[in-house]
Here is the input.
Amino acid sequence: MIKDQWYIACFDKELKENKLLKRKIVGEEIVLFKNTEGKVSALEDRCCHRNVHLSNGEVHEGKLKCGYHGWEFNTSGKCVHIPMLEDNQSIPSAACVKAYPIQYKYKAYWVYFGEESKRQDAVLPEMPELDNYPYVFNRHTLKANIKLVAESLFDAQHINHVHKHSINTLLGKLREPKTEYSIEIKDKSLHGSYQRINNSNLFEKLYFGWEKHIQTKFAFWYPHSSMLDSYFPKHMHFPARRLIIYEHFYEIDENELMMIQITAWKNIFRFNPPFAKWFMKRKSDQIVEEDIVFLESNRHWHDKEKLTDLIIKGDEPTISFMQLWNKNFNRSHEKLD
Ligand code: FES
Ligand SMILES: [Fe+2]
Here is the structure.
């Protein structure tokens, strides 16, 4: 599992006042909570007293109170109160739990699980739209190969097949014919674009415009985030519109993955924001469910037969993705040796 990275533990709207939030990310069990000053902390989900899950406890006056004997921990993981302590005893210095590095960015709390010496090398994806655009997100657990999950968003050639119904009503009838890609591979990310053909019907064209070609950008940041960005230019009295899908994924443990799909948009259904959210959430769920069928199917055959895929020239984004993945994976592996 790739631990030396920042992963989204939760969005701010998922962390409720006076509530504990339990997560398992790259095999690490954590519990998140907010103190009375609003500081958020990610602690190891294990009480140092009798080794039980702290997430079975509660938030008490801004401290995490263990549910078993009531020991209380502050946001640094230090035990600050033990109810059973005798008057002549002080809190043992070993009474603390691990606090993970945490940062707030793009309306989400990101937690770092790796070695301290590698923290400065871990990059966050660029998701500036999440600060300004309306967005929805959904979480899905699946049993799949993380590399296939990572590239599924920018595997353009699957869209016409897997998402032929869901994408049509989201973006009109866009088609990905034999596509020319432009791809730039950087040190820890790749960025590319291609054009999609707009075969929409009259009603869809009235909304999305008459442009024959729709510019689509994509990106991937090793090892946990990808993006697909569709742009519709200004048309009649409709301003330019964008639909950006991010996917953020990680191994929960050896067996299962978490995939968070985040859909952000600008100027789509702008006169009815609640409807826009409802619509986008529904579509987003549908799109991920359509993908999961194939992502899990691939893992089924790989596990059963130890097969390799037959990649051809038309799988160009996959080839670039593999180069980037292998370079970064081998580099972090070498450091371990
Ligand atoms: S096990 Fe947590 S207080 Fe005893
Ligand atoms: Fe897909």
Summary: The CA atoms of residues 3 and 264 lie 27 Å apart. The chain has a mean pLDDT of 90. Helices lie at 129-132, 146-151, 159-162, 168-171, 202-208, 273-305, 316-336. The longest helix spans residues 273-305.
